Amino acid sequence: MAKSRQYYPSQDESMSPTSVRSREWEGPSRWTEYLGPEMASSVSSRSSKQLSSSDGHVQSSSGGSTKALNIQWVVQMIEVAEGLMAKMYRLNQILEYPDSVGHVFSDAFWKAGVFPNHPRICTLLSKKFPEHFSKLQLERIDKFSLDSLHDGAELHLQSLEPWIQLLLDLMAFREQALRLILDLSSTVITLLPHQNSLILHAFMDLFCAFVRVNLFAEKIPRKMLLQVYNLLHALSRNDRDCDFYHRLVQFIDSYDPPLKGLQEDLNFVSPRIGEVLEAVGPSIFLSADTRKLRNEGFLSPYHPRFPDILTNSAHPMRAQDLANVTSYREWVLLGYLVCPDELLRVTSIDIALVVLKENLVVTLFRDEYILLHEDYQLYVLPRVLESKKMAKSGRTKQKEADLEYSVAKQVEKMISEVHEQALQLCDTIHRERRILLKQEIGRMVLFFTDQPSLLAPNIQMVFSALALAQSEVLWYFQHAGIASSRSKAARVIPVDIVS
């Protein structure tokens, strides 16, 4: 289980350019930069209404319940996640989208004005992370560049300060978001679509935001940012490391690669995530069954068995679930990716198969994405194989071991084969769904134009149809032109999306 770390400012913190923000480590005002105007003003008003007790704890003058305050905090942290990703996206734009994992940096990267234009030293510091610069004998590698860095240290520090603060904010977000996820997971007894639905969506939205933020963070040059900043700080502060250096080294190293860090950090909520994903399985199966949607009238204003009845009241609850199915699919894709042990539940393999077969990528933010199947094969499959090996070694009761071994074997087969299936079938699956939605929404337009008074009784069905249509439009543009590599071949295969 990931332990929450507290922040203790050192006596010399005033020498750090980020000392002002660092003192607000736990305060709500820390996140104002990342919130929209409405949310930021709400935070300010709540802060002004809070009274600090003598022991430093915050007491609410309104006397509201802790759970209600937690939900407000969850909603705020979800928006903070969006703000963090927007800032990371902006940094990548400025740096011309560097390959931080492969340490490949273009000329535009060095001319952007963020990093000193001394590629040899900066790239070496990044490649050798987490080694300290004092062990790298930089004067032997490029003494001219090192002297130049020394002369312009203060100027370069100013250029890097906003982005170092971003790293500090990512670290703080990790600690506070994990604390919230653990709190909700352990205090709410039931998290199901039809029980505590609002809390469930807040919990899972924060969970997915936490995963996306940390996956996206790998795409920015975190290692170079920290190593170069610390070198410059030492050059201008008599060889002293910046105060937060070792904590950031630990944070970045624990998320290198990010999926291993996420799997470890979220292990404590893994069973809860598994329960949620099992609960949304029926809605996912229904959304994938085009024939059933059409034949049973889930998206039709007419009753499926009684055509003379103009109000379709046959499936009100299932229609409501269909409106949330886009969120459910994201929960499944990210949930099993960071909680791979939950794939060993008997029903999980079918749920995962349906969603994996329809997608090649997971969108992180705007046009940033990860290749879904490659990550499942790199970070989920080894965990499944480990479970299979343990079951075979007979560490559990024989009957349970046989079942676990059988399920692990099926999951292994599914992950190994579903990438090929997705390449061949995802376009066809979504094209059929788009045709269905075009037909059903077209009928709705004609029907409600003729019978506008019947719109209200059928409004949930309309919302579901529009939500599914929005999902298909987003899927189309997220996958158009995607190049996905086959696991058994070195060549890259373009995935053509046919409208």
UniProtKB/TrEMBL annotation:
Ranges of biased composition (kind: Polar residues): 7-20
Positions of the UniProt region annotated as Disordered: 1-28, 42-64
InterPro entries documented for this protein: Nck-associated_protein-1 (IPR019137)
Superkingdom per UniProt: Eukaryota
Family in the record: Belongs to the HEM-1/HEM-2 family.
Designated name of the protein: Protein NAP1-like
Species for this entry: Camelina sativa (False flax)
